User: What shape does this take?
Amino acid sequence: MKFKYLSIIAVAAFSLFSTTSCMDDFDKPNTDNYIVTSPTDIGKVNATIYDVKQKYCADNTTADYSRNSSNWYSKVNEDVIIEGVVCANDISGNLYQTLLIRNIDDSKAATDPAHDQCIILAVKSTALYPYFALGQRIKINLKGLYAGAYSKTPRIGTPYKTSSNNINLGPMLFEDLKNNVQLVGTPNPNAPELTPIDKTDEEGKAWLRASANKNFENCPMLATVRGDIKEASEENRDKFDKGSDATFKDVYGKTETLSANGKKIFGPYELHDAGYGVERNLALGNGSTVAIRTSTKNRISFIELPENTRSYTGILSYYTNWQIQLRDTTDISAN
Assistant: This one.
């Protein structure tokens, strides 16, 4: 019996020691295994985002692989090292496996296209924002990665085969971040790259209307546009759309889901397309429109469509027409 009691005391003492050790571990966590980017310098910057876009993203004439005039890529076989600031990430769930990298080069004149450039860095992960906060400067070594265009939008990533057996430029592997991407300093909430380009005035609206501006130099772009959503206008707010593509049997013919208040929302699942996105049309007031593209089932998609004039900030790109993808709920403003 005495041995039994001594054993119980010993186990209790060991448990207390173990608990104390665990508490110490939580106080000072070992985060070595959570470093997802390169812990060492990946090299000196030797190119710009514009250099990369000119060489790999301007058109498909010299691409290693071209599926069509909207989708192509080439492998980068040498050390091409660029730098930029994260100005869009996936924090809301609306941007999938996507980081928007932007660099403003003040050594270039404001009229020089190399002065202000963006490119998409696609990374295979469901949660990039904990590692890539807005305002975080990064370096990217493109060696071993691919650069080109996905639906006409310049991007860096890795090829993948779609469910339709098409080969497109998809996201780079998450584990490749450790070799190809380096954090530079800490996030700067005042970085100039976080200020969107204003396309809300008459000059901006005229710029959007000009077809010549739909090119690789201007796409993608962090921008703000302003207007009224057509689907929420007085003449349309009671006209409800139905899923119209028979390919999606789970939504075909079903009327769009409304909010609890009976209002239209940004991304009703019933209206999704092959990319699981929904487009609402923003009328700019000069006869032109910009599509607000929203993925389904995220915190933006369930927001009610504003029934008055608002400003919208996000990644501006184009396919046939201009479209914008919001980064978070705060990208909708009355101002």
